[in-house]
Amino acid sequence: MVEVSNLHRTEAFLSHRNARLTVHGRRLLVERVRSGRPVAHVAADMGISRPTVHKWIRRWRSEGESGLIDRSSRPRRTPHRTASSTEAHVCRLRQDRKLGPARIGPILGLPASTVHRILTRHGLNRLAFLDRPTGQVIRRYERERPGELVHVDVKKLGRIPDGGGHKVLGRQAGRAIRRGLRHIQYRSDLIDGCLAETGLTIRPA
Fold first, then answer.
1. Using one digit for the tens of pLDDT, what is the confidence trace for 1-34?
2. Quick check: is 74 in a domain?
3. How far apart are CA 141 and CA 119, in angstroms?
4. pLDDT (tens digit, 9 = 90+) per residue, 56-77?
5. Per the domain annotation, does 174 fall within a domain?
6. How many domains would you assign to the chain?
């Protein structure tokens, strides 16, 4: 039997958007066919067609375990793709003159949608991504491992007691209500530079 691990559970988020099976599901498919179950029964159990079962069995037999991993959907060649020189011209107009697709298109005789795809491909689709004086793409830092860089932001929070504070009750009444109360808290935000996730901790003073 194939053991289901946390890694296999995350594969559902990494597979192709329209994929019926994850890598773990394909391993189960192979094991069930190898155990002697009819292909039609395996296909019905897993909600796929018989040709799909045969496809994954064929890949497994020819490539082994690596044949069960998703392949790129990118075509091997794109004969109608815009020429590299034209793409370079689009990028120069974007960086030098800060023009958008609607203005670059008529200059080069291209549809605005094509210009937008070119700019997106080269990371120039947002002016906010560019350094205004030079037009160069701003390279923000990237971290490879979780915990390699952690940002810590600390903010002091005042605790308003029940019944309101001194602005509502006056100085004397406000002091009486909060006497003995730890009225300051600190909020700590932890941001991992790799995962871009935030952890929130609130602790008393």
1. 333 333 333 333 445 555 678 888 999 999 999 9
2. no
3. 21
4. 999 999 999 999 888 877 778 8
5. yes
6. 3
